[in-house]
Amino acid sequence: MQKVLPVIMCGGAGTRMWPESREQLPKQFIALFGERSTFQDTMAMLAASPLFDTPLVITNRDYASIVAAQVRDIGAMADIVLEPMRRDSGPAVAVAAEIGFARAPGTVLAVLAADHAVVNRAGMVAICAEAAAVASEGSIVTLGIAPTFPATGYGYIRRGPRIGQKGDVCKVAAFVEKPNEETAQRYIAEGYLWNSGNFIFRADVMKAEIARFEPAMAEPVAHAVANATHDGECLVLDADAFGAATKKSIDFAVMERTDLAAVIPADIGWSDVGTWSAVRDLTERDANGNAVRGDGIVLHARNTYVRSQGLLTAVIGVDDIIVVSTPDAVLVLDASRADRVKELVDRLKLDNRSEIVVHKS
């Protein structure tokens, strides 16, 4: 069995999960459901399988101590790479490809998000093994999720011809941007898949594709890795070189332009945990669809989620709402509009509110 080098992308700010997620402690490090953070759940899944090598965690320098502590708390191991500033996912994947290539050009990497949830972890490992076999032949494989509703917040994948004689791996015919609801319903009817944002590829293949499409990203990243320094056990990318790399997502940089993209359907109980509604849906609920985490009470209501840190929070007679209470902020929103939280955070930024950065004690 060929080992896979997992790469956990762990640098996002998590603005859609305010007020609990803040810039100094974003959502991937918070126990949103269960006892561990999504980052720790991902690390535990990787540690439990012989398929994976020691994970490479790419994160913002500001999160170095959090990452190290959460890895240590679950008894796992990781190689931590620190970005001196955020440059989107393209440069981060380029860093992973450089590091994997230095180990061996044919190293197979699996890029995974730290803030996603996977219910079927055994299924995820099996899919990664299948995808790795395809990637070892030169494809860049993404995991596609069968839609369960006409989501307007996800990108979609239109499948092309099947690759090989066995399995369900197909060429990617097209990546399509987030649709409106009517278009999303048509996509579902036509068999499109959600783009999960997980990618499996050979180091030399991704390195070559980034160099082909984005030389202004590839060259600075190569210098950033070559001139990296160590801070304790962490590898710190050279700031001047990394800062010169084009700031662009890996989707726009490579995936939507390459002819090597393939997709494998992944029935793994996946969620990007992108809204408080998603957290509610992943939380155990009572017969009325209500869920409470922390010090809260819900009476005469349905499908209501209450999350409270130390402040008694009571809801009576209101359906389909979400209440998140922290010591310094309270959020109340219609569950169907949970994707508007980022809009609120943008407004708070304009007002220079410190509550988007740090929790007040």
Tell me about this structure:
- With 361 residues, the chain is an alpha/beta fold.
- It folds into two domains: 4-271, Spore Coat Polysaccharide Biosynthesis Protein SpsA, Chain A; 276-356, no CATH class.
- 30% of the residues lie in helices and 28% in strands.
- It has eleven helices and 17 strands.
- It has helices at residues 38-47, 64-73, 89-103, 121-135, 181-189, 203-213, 215-226, 239-243, 250-255, 276-282, 341-350; strands spanning 4-9, 56-60, 79-83, 108-113, 117-118, 140-145, 156-162, 170-176, 193-202, 229-231, 234-236, 261-265, 270-271, 291-299, 305-316, 321-326, 329-334.
- The strands form three sheets. A five-stranded mixed beta barrel has the order 6-9-7-8-12.
- A hairpin with a 2-residue loop joins strand 10 and strand 11.
- Helix 3 crosses helix 6 (203-213).
- The longest helix is centred in the first third of the chain and has 15 residues, at 89-103.
- 46% of the residues are buried.
- The mean pLDDT is 95.
Distance between the termini: 50 Å
Top CATH class of the largest domain: Alpha Beta
SS summary, helix count: 11
Question: How would you describe the shape?
Answer: globular
Helix content: 25-40%
Largest β sheet strand count, sense and barrel closure: 5 strands, mixed, barrel
Total strands: 17
Architecture of the largest domain, CATH level 2? Answer: Alpha-Beta Complex
Provide the domain count. 2
Measured on Cα atoms, how large is the radius of gyration? 21 Å
What would you call the structural class? Answer: alpha/beta
What name does CATH use for the topology of the largest domain? Spore Coat Polysaccharide Biosynthesis Protein SpsA, Chain A
Strand order of the largest sheet: 6-9-7-8-12
Low-confidence stretches: none
Average of the residue pLDDT scores: 95
What share of residues are in beta strands? 25-35%
Q: Looking at this structure, what is the CATH superfamily of the largest domain?
A: Spore Coat Polysaccharide Biosynthesis Protein SpsA, Chain A
What is the element string, with H for helices and E for strands? EHEHEHEEHEEEHEHHEEHHEEHEEEEH
